[in-house]
C-alpha cells in the first residue's frame, strides 16, 4: 500500500479512522448505525448517477478553441467573430443518438456535434449533428420519432418495425435516412466526420441588417467511414472505440481540427427559394449559396474529469449571443425550449454555474437560490429589478432584431412536400459501389420489419427519389414495387 501524508476524510472533512472495516458490535457484528462514515459512503454511492441524456446519452468531449480566419462582421455583430485572428475557448461533445450511456460507439446512427463557445458576450452553443439535415421538420413529431429509435416498452428491444413504420409515414425523413444508410452512417472516428449546425439561423450586423446562415464544419482529417463488418466487430469487442480514439489523439498531441464555413442567404430569398430554407430536412445548394470560410476549430485538451465536464456539460440551441438569432425553423423553435428544460431536470436549476458551463463573460442577473447554489448567490447585492441601488440593467443594443410576422395562428403543414429531389440527387451522386452498399444496408435494416405494407410504402419513397433506388431495394427484399407509382 502506498503511504501519503494526506488523511482520508469524510465529505465534511473529518479524518476517517478505518476505511476497510465497518464498525460492528463485537467482531462478527451486526453493523452499527453509529458508523456514520459507512452510512455516508453508501448513501453517496447511491446518488452517483444523474439521469442520462434522453437522447445522445453516449458521448465524448474535449476542450479547444475557435479562431476567425475570415472577417464576416459585415453580416454579424457577434463579437467573437469580429476580426481575423480572434480566438474563443470552446468545449465540444460528440455523441451517438439512440444508444444508452454505455452503448457501443460504432453503431449506425447520426453523431451529435455540440459546440460551446465561451465568448466575451456569454456562451454561444451550436448543437448540431454530423449531417446537414434531420429526419423530421416539426418539433411536435420529435418524441414519437425518438420512441421508434429507442426500445420497445414491452420487450425492451430495438424495434425495426417501428423505425420503418414511422419513416415510411414521414417521407420528409428520406434525405436523412439515405445519409444514415450510406457509408457516412458509421464514421471511422469522431475526428473523421464533418459537423453541421443543420438549422438555418439569423445573423444580424451592427446596423441591424439580417441574413440567414447555415454552418458547415469540414474535418481537416478527411472523411473516413467504417466498414460494416469491422464496425460490428468493434461494437462487440471495443464498444468505446471512438471515445478512446479521440482521447488518445489529443493526449498524443495529434489535435483534430475543422474548418468552419457558412452559407449566407439574403433574407428576401427565403420567400422564393425553391426549398423552404427553414425546413431542416433540406439543404441549400452550394451552387446557389457557396461556402464562405469563417474560421477554424481545434481540439487540444482532454477533460480532466469525465463526469464533471462531459456528463454535466449542458448545450442549448437557445444559448445565443448578440448578432446570432433563431430562425422560424419549427424544429429549432421546439429545441429552444427542450434543452434548457432537460438541463434543469438532468443537471439542476443552477447548471450554468458549474465550471464546465459557467460563461467566461461576467454574469449579472437577479436569479437567486435553488438547489446546489455554490457561487456567492449574488451576495448582498440588490436582488430585484427595477431598483434604486445601481443593479445591472438591460442592454438595448442586445435586443433581437425586430421582424415582421403575418398569417393566421393555426396548426399548419409545410407547403413544400418535395422530399424526393434532394434524396434522389444524393443517390445519383454515389458511385456504383456506394449505391450497392447503401442498398445492402437498407435491405438488411428493413428485412426484420414485420408488416409488408410498411416495406412497400418505404420502397415507394425510394422509387420516387430515384427509380433505380426503389427497384434495387425492392429486389433485395424480394418484393414488387408498389402499384400506381
Ligand atoms: C440532445 C431534444 C432535435 C442534436 C438532446 C437532448 C434533448 C434533445 C432533450 C438532451 C439534452 C440534455 O439532456 O443535455 C431535441 C428535440 C429536438 C431535437 C426536442 C427536435 C425538436 C435535434 C436536432 C439536432 C440535435 C435537429 C441536430 C441538428 C442534439 C445533440 C445533442 C442533443 C448534438 C447532445 C448535446 C450534448 O452533447 O449534450 N436533444 N433534439 N437534436 N440533441 Fe437534440
Task: Characterise this structure.
The protein has 485 residues and is an alpha+beta fold. Among the domains are: 59-150 and 187-360, Catalase HpII,  Chain A, domain 1 (Beta Barrel); 421-477, no CATH class. Helices cover 27% and strands 15% of the residues. The protein contains 12 helices and 10 strands. Strands 1, 2, 3, 4, 5, 6, 7, 8, 9 and 10 form a 10-stranded antiparallel beta sheet that branches. The chain binds protoporphyrin IX containing FE.
How would the blueprint of this fold be written?
Elements: H1 36-46, E1 59-68, E2 87-96, E3 111-119, E4 122-129, H2 142-149, H3 160-169, H4 174-181, E5 195-196, E6 201-204, E7 210-219, H5 228-237, H6 241-251, E8 257-266, E9 292-301, H7 306-311, E10 324-325, H8 330-346, H9 421-429, H10 432-446, H11 452-465, H12 467-477
The protein binds protoporphyrin IX containing FE.
The site of protoporphyrin IX containing FE (HEM) has 28 residues, from strand 2, strand 3, strand 4 and helix 8.
**What best-fitting shape do the alpha-carbon axes yield?**
globular
Q: Name the CATH superfamily classification of the domain at 59-150 and 187-360.
A: Catalase core domain
CATH architecture of the domain at 59-150 and 187-360: Beta Barrel
Strand content: 15-25%
> What is the helix content?
25-40%
Helix run count: 12
Question: Based on helices, strands and strand pairing, what is the structural class?
Answer: alpha+beta
Main β-sheet description? 10 strands, antiparallel
Amino acid at each position: 500500500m502506498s503511504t501519503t501524508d494526506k488523511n482520508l476524510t469524510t465529505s465534511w472533512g473529518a479524518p476517517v479512522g478505518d476505511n476497510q472495516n465497518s464498525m460492528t458490535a463485537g467482531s462478527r457484528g451486526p453493523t452499527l448505525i453509529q458508523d456514520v462514515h459507512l452510512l455516508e459512503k453508501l448513501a453517496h454511492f447511491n446518488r452517483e448517477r444523474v439521469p442520462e441524456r434522453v437522447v445522445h446519452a453516449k458521448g465524448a468531449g474535449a476542450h479547444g478553441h475557435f479562431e476567425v480566419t475570415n472577417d464576416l462582421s459585415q453580416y454579424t455583430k457577434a463579437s467573437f467573430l469580429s476580426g481575423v485572428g480572434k480566438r474563443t475557448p470552446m468545449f465540444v461533445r460528440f455523441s451517438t443518438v439512440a444508444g444508452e450511456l454505455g452503448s457501443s460507439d460504432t453503431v449506425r446512427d447520426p453523431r451529435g456535434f455540440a459546440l460551446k463557445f465561451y465568448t466575451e458576450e456569454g456562451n454561444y452553443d451550436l448543437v448540431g449533428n454530423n449531417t446537414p439535415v434531420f429526419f423530421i421538420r416539426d418539433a411536435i413529431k420529435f418524441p414519437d420519432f425518438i420512441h421508434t429509435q429507442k426500445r420497445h416498452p414491452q420487450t425492451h428491444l430495438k424495434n425495426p418495425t417501428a423505425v420503418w413504420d414511422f419513416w415510411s409515414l414521414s417521407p420528409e425523413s428520406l434525405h436523412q435516412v439515405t445519409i444514415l444508410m450510406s457509408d457516412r452512417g458509421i464514421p471511422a472516428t469522431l475526428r473523421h466526420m464533418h459537423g453541421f449546425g443543420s438549422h438555418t439561423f439569423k445573423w444580424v450586423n451592427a446596423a441591424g441588417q439580417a441574413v440567414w446562415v447555415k454552418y458547415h464544419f469540414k474535418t481537416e482529417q478527411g472523411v473516413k467511414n467504417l466498414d460494416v463488418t469491422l464496425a460490428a466487430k468493434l461494437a462487440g469487442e471495443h464498444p468505446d472505440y471512438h471515445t478512446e480514439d479521440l482521447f488518445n489523439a489529443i493526449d498524443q498531441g495529434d489535435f483534430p481540427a475543422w474548418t468552419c464555413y457558412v452559407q449566407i442567404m439574403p433574407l428576401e430569398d427565403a420567400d422564393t427559394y425553391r426549398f423552404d430554407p427553414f425546413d431542416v430536412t433540406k439543404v441549400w445548394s452550394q451552387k446557389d449559396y457557396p461556402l464562405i470560410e469563417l474560421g477554424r476549430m481545434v481540439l487540444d485538451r482532454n477533460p480532466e474529469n469525465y463526469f464533471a465536464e462531459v456528463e454535466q456539460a449542458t448545450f442549448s440551441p437557445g444559448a445565443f449571443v448578440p448578432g446570432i438569432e433563431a430562425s422560424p425553423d419549427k424544429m429549432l423553435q421546439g429545441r429552444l425550449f427542450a434543452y434548457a428544460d432537460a438541463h434543469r431536470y438532468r443537471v439542476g436549476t443552477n447548471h450554468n454555474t458549474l465550471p464546465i458551463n459557467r460563461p467566461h463573460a461576467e454574469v449579472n442577473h437577479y436569479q437567486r437560490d435553488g438547489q446546489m447554489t455554490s457561487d456567492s448567490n449574488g451576495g448582498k447585492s440588490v436582488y430585484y429589478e427595477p431598483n434604486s441601488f445601481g443593479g445591472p440593467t438591460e442592454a438595448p443594443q442586445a435586443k433581437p432584431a425586430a421582424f415582421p410576422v403575418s398569417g393566421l395562428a393555426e396548426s399548419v403543414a409545410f407547403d413544400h412536400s418535395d422530399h424526393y429531389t434532394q434524396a434522389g440527387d444524393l443517390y445519383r451522386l454515389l458511385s456504383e459501389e456506394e449505391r450497392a452498399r447503401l442498398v445492402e444496408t437498407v435491405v438488411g435494416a428493413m428485412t426484420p420489419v414485420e408488416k409488408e405494407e410498411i416495406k412497400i410504402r418505404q420502397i415507394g419513397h425510394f422509387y420516387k427519389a430515384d427509380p433505380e433506388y426503389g427497384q434495387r431495394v425492392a429486389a433485395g427484399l424480394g418484393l414488387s414495387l408498389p402499384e400506381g407509382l
